[in-house]
Amino acid sequence: KHAAKIRLDDVKGEQSREKDKADRATSEQVLDQRTRMILLQMINRGFVSEVHGAISTGKEANVYGAVAYPDLDGPPIQRAIKVYKTAILSFKDRERYITGEHRFKSGAEKGNSRKMVKLWAEKEFRNLRRIHSAGIKCPEPIQLKLHVLVMELLGDRKGYAYPRLRDAAISSEDAEEVWRSLYIQLLGIMRRMYQVCRLVHADLSEYNILYNDRQLYIIDVSQSVEHDHPRSLEFLRMDIKNTGDFFRREGVETLSDRTVFDFITA
Ligand code: ATP
Ligand code: MN
Fold first, then answer.
1. Of the four listed, 1, 137, 228, 241, which is most buried by Cβ atoms within 10 Å?
2. How, if at all, do strands 28-31 and 4-7 pair?
3. Mean pLDDT lowest for which of 32-36, 178-182, 190-194?
């Protein structure tokens, strides 16, 4: 009931920049009062200076581009802000990830959707921290407040986000070789995530991997589970199948899912 339609560009400081109309239209989203307050607080504290338009609007979260100016005369830093939606419905089927997750026996499992989204944001923040510290390419987590997560933007200096692997345009003469090496790169990432981070992504696919310049970046880890989660191996098999199927469709001669499973867990 407190929902108000605002243009995120209006949250910015004085230096309103000229942006084209189309760009502005996409940044028009309904944000509730609480989310706006959190964004303003983050601006006041310098974690971000400007919040721009939506990079992605989905069922569970919206992701916005943002910019921070750490030094007055220094270059701007591109950031991404993921705002989890407080809608209960889309989080219902996520229960299976939480059940059995020893890090989240907080009594917030059911019922309270505000607590739920806070939990998911927290989970993503912690998982990102762990994955990033392990040297796996992913957004560096910067700041968390309730259901709002600030992270590094995976994109160019102008603020254009890298494409998802699904949309990556790999059309060079050596495309075949590039795809093959990306496949091998991903196997290494999955193994490292399992062995070093002790995590299974649990929603890994060409939609949750970004691509730039022959590098893969892992995103969207709010549902990732500890490898001692009772269903972690089931989730791992699913990740292996989904990514394997994708690379097979791209013409890569992949290993069998079984071999990959043994490689990751051995
Ligand atoms: P939903 O399921 O509601 O679509 P989601 O949980 O899948 O949301 P993410 O996958 O984390 O959310 O992010 C949605 C999209 O936003 C991604 O596919 C990616 O294109 C973009 N994105 C997310 N994080 C970043 C980032 N740090 N840098 C650049 N782009 C990002
Ligand atoms: Mn996603």
1. 137
2. antiparallel
3. 32-36
